[in-house]
Write a structure and sequence with these properties.
CATH class of the largest domain: Alpha Beta
Radius of gyration: 24 Å
Strand order of the largest sheet: 7-10-11-4-12-13
Protein name: Sugar ABC transporter ATP-binding protein
Number of helices: 18
GO molecular function: ATP binding; ATP hydrolysis activity
Helix content: 25-40%
Largest sheet: 6 strands, mixed
Number of domains: 2
CATH architecture of the largest domain: 3-Layer(aba) Sandwich
Distance between the termini: 45 Å
Keywords: ATP-binding, Nucleotide-binding, Repeat, Transport
Structural class: alpha/beta
Length: 496
């Protein structure tokens, strides 16, 4: 049995102690969930293990060998493998080529394709993953791509495997397949660390839970000895989890109506109506067309046929994001870093992009009004930032998401569309995002909410539409179903 352990690890940055006297151990043949809110220090600890950072003091060991890596490649060569949330596979190459990229077997000067595919197949079979190694990665679905990332790490015979949010882009049925693969990996003499914000996954896959908070080790527990409330208590102290307020009730007025909307290879014949002040969820598996539908309604992607009505009037002519913005719509995109923020610009800039027309006076910008509006969003959304001049790249995921929301709220929208707003943020930040949605609904702002996390839809929404293979197959109300029923409806197209 292999043991990875730390002794009194401390890591200091200018003005901040990221890790404070961390002594912990992880054994092989188990999955160890490493949990903590954003800023807790878990990513810093993983970076130390992977050679991206060096501790200020303290040490870490694998079995009895003291480790110290000058560079990440030193850690990889030793056997420390990290699979990050952002995938690094190349879509134009085959599965086998991705797994052995940079290490392709050769016979003489030529690539030994037979051996390459055979070796890749052995690794995939060891995880019970039924994936053809000759398949191009662009033809895989998301969970298969995640399996390829893990297979790439396993191909280097790691002694420690670190998984950072491996299910962030997966639907529930795909998560189950990934977990079955991890159960096979557990049989090896490999230490497995599993970072996630999805607490409901932890009992399904983890054997132990280790929690960091504000750079300190709060504790480690066997999964059989702790429940979700206990984990939350370790992560946040006393956390108040609110349910949807009783006064978040849709009005009678229809603010948005979609009729027979079609987009080739994305969705077809989608029709629904959104009421004033309603929080409307859209559920479905990955590939069901949820995100594509929001993007088409907002004008990011063109739809082929159908009609959109705002406050009873058809939107005619070319539909663009700029036109829809002026009609009162807003969209927080699925990938906030690539499409929702300019990471190399200030918080002030990122809170002003959508509403910059409001502050323009000819060729000049009313800086005072712009600054006042940004300060208002920081205060009302409880955005934690040292200064409005701070780049958004330096913020936590939860605060980045609040900036994306604040950017659009500054434009006073009547309809907000949220695409995976809680992806990659901790439980506390998720709760704050939900409270923002409810607060806006109480003001009469309507919301369309897309999330892979079906539990979130049940918690947040007044009504949930079901998309399956691009078709709207029905709707449910949270008070009339549960997570199992909603999941079954999304998968099988039949209500419970």
């Amino acid at each position: 049995m292999a043991i990875l352990r730390t002794e009194h690890i401390r890591k200091d940055f200018p003005g901040c102690r990221a890790l404070d006297d961390i002594s912990v151990r992880f054994e092989s043949h188990k999955v160890h969930a490493l949990l903590g809110k954003n800023g807790s220090g878990k990513s810093t600890l993983i970076k130390i293990f992977s050679g991206a950072l060096r501790p200020t003091s303290g040490a870490f060991y694998l079995d009895e060998e003291k480790l110290s890596f000058a560079l990440p490649r030193d850690a990889v060569e030793f056997g420390m493998a990290t699979v990050y949330q952002e995938m690094s596979i190349i879509s134009s190459l085959s599965v086998a080529e991705n797994i052995y990229l940079g290490r392709l077997p050769k016979r003489g000067k030529a690539i030994d394709w037979k051996k390459l595919n055979r070796d890749a197949e052995e690794i995939l079979q060891s995880m019970n993953a039924d994936i053809n190694p000759a398949t191009l990665v662009r033809d895989l679905n998301i969970w298969q791509c995640q399996i390829v990332e893990i297979a790439k790490a396993l191909s280097k015979s790691p002694r420690v495997l670190m998984l950072d949010e491996p299910t962030s882009s997966l639907a529930q049925n795909e998560v189950d397949k990934l977990f079955r693969a991890l159960e096979e990996i557990k049989k090896r003499d490999v230490v497995i660390l599993y970072i996630t914000h999805k607490l409901h996954e932890v009992p399904k896959i983890a054997d132990t839970v280790t929690v960091l908070r504000d750079g300190k080790l709060i504790g480690t527990s066997e999964i059989a000895e702790i429940d979700n409330s206990g984990i939350l208590s370790m992560m946040f102290g006393n956390v108040s989890i609110r349910s949807r307020p009783t006064d978040v009730v849709p009005g009678e007025k229809t603010v948005l109506e979609v009729k027979n909307l079609c987009r080739r290879n994305a969705f077809e014949q989608v029709s629904f109506a959104l009421k004033q002040g309603e929080v409307l969820g859209i559920a479905g598996m990955l590939g069901s067309g949820r995100s594509e539908l929001l993007r088409s309604i907002f004008g990011v992607d063109k739809f082929d046929s159908g009609k959109i009505f705002l406050n009873g009037q058809e939107v005619t002519g070319r539909i663009t994001p700029r036109r829809m913005k002026f009609r009162g719509l807003a969209l927080t995109p699925e990938d906030r870093k690539k499409e929702g923020l300019v990471l190399t610009q200030s918080t002030l800039d990122n809170l002003s992009f959508a509403s910059i027309d409001k502050y323009a006076k000819g060729w000049r910008v009313d800086k005072k009004a712009r600054l006042a509006a940004a300060k208002k969003q920081v205060e009302e959304l409880r955005i934690k930032v040292p200064s409005l001049e701070t780049f958004t790249s330096a913020m936590s995921g939860g605060n980045q998401q609040k900036v994306v929301v604040g950017n659009w709220l500054s434009n006073d929208p009547s309809i907000m569309m949220f695409d995976e707003p809680s992806r990659g943020i901790d439980v506390n930040a998720k709760q704050q995002i939900f409270e923002i949605i409810w607060a806006q609904a109480q003001k009469g702002i309507s919301t369309i909410f897309v999330s892979t996390e079906l539990e979130e839809l049940l918690e947040v929404c007044n009504r949930i539409l079901i998309l399956r293979h691009g078709r709207l197959i029905g709707e449910v109300r949270p008070e009339e179903t549960d997570i199992e029923g909603l999941y079954r409806f999304c998968m099988e197209g039949a209500a419970q």
